[in-house]
Amino acid sequence: MFFGLRRGGNTYYALNVTNPSQPSLAWQIKSEGVFSQLGETWSKLTLAKLRYKKDGSTLFDNVLVFGGGYDNRLDDEGLALSNNMPSNIKGNGVYIVNAKTGDLIWSYSGGDLKHSVPSSIRVLDIDRNGSIDRLYFGDTGGNIWRADLNIDDTDDDASLHDVTQDARIHKFAQLGGNGANARKFFYEPDIAVFNHSGKSRLIISIGSGYRSHPSNSAIKDRFYVLNDENFFEAPSQTPSPLTEYHLVDSGSLNGEAFLPSRKGWFMRLSNGTGEKALASPLIFNNKVMFTTFTKVSPVPSTNACLSAVDNQTRAYVLDLLTASATADIDGDGNINSNDESVAISSNEILGTPQLVFNKPSNCTKEGCDHFVDVRVGDLSTALIDKNTKNGGTNLGEQLPKVYWISP
Q1: Which member of 237, 241, 247, 319 has the lowest number of beta carbons within 10 Å of its beta carbon?
Q2: Whole-prediction pTM value?
Q3: Percent over 70 (pLDDT), the chain
Q4: How much of the chain is in helix, strand and coil states, percent to nearest 5?
């Protein structure tokens, strides 16, 4: 069992719970030595498999990937708006450790990475050889980073699988700034890989939001969808980071796909005041879904013991390529701009929309219906289910049939 402390400190712990009645400490990582840049341990540990070289031998181990954490000096809204972190910032790093021992395998900190990384890290195995080789993550300066762990794994020279020599990291997008543009990424992006117009695509989605101050309205937050053109391999030369100049405003797409002429799109979060994304998005079945938190005009509470409600949560369901409404989420029988998002609740911060796989039904020798719902928060009804116009997903119609012969 692996966990950090979030606001409670700057340490990660691993517990051996093989015998649940007698747990024991396996290891701990403190903000010292090779981990001296660790901030408050907000980043959830991502478990993965990595093939790497150590002392001349190639190992294939369970590993943990995590961000450097949060520097609590960012609680100061003045500092956060200036986006000018001090030179002794904490949390500006990314780490990979052995899951069994906690020993460091690879890390990157400092350099151009000048902001904290409180989010989890999105890991990918691009070449599908069982070992992760790509990382994506954001930072509190509004930047998105890409790390290639084995740029030399296409040959068999001495550095094959040597992560310490072959890893490369670069700033993929620069979407922050000062004042109203001091956007921050506190949560990991979601990734989609698919074919479009005869070409393989890797699309990154992420929303910005100042998690330390959910009611902040000075920063104008965005939701982004970005195309990584260097899908399979690390670019031969480090590309310049994407900026909003390379992207199209979602309101200008008019139902047309941003590919191949644009590098991505962004949506201005403007429902209410200070609307922001405070969770990771979800990409599924050509849709991107995410939740937001916003301030609204106070309305009387139905509970006499509570003051007026002045905040609201929303859930968005958008076409990944056109940024337009794609499902009848308000249930009125039509799909229009009102179906881009729907109000969900108040007095809470919602997490990532979740997929719920229902029990297969109507099974015949030709197959079964297998519907997938999308649920948000603790709502008793689904955001999207089999009855949602142009939204419900029946995997029984999409996945290839599997047959077997009983001996």
Answers
A1: 237
A2: 0.94
A3: 96
A4: 10, 40, 50
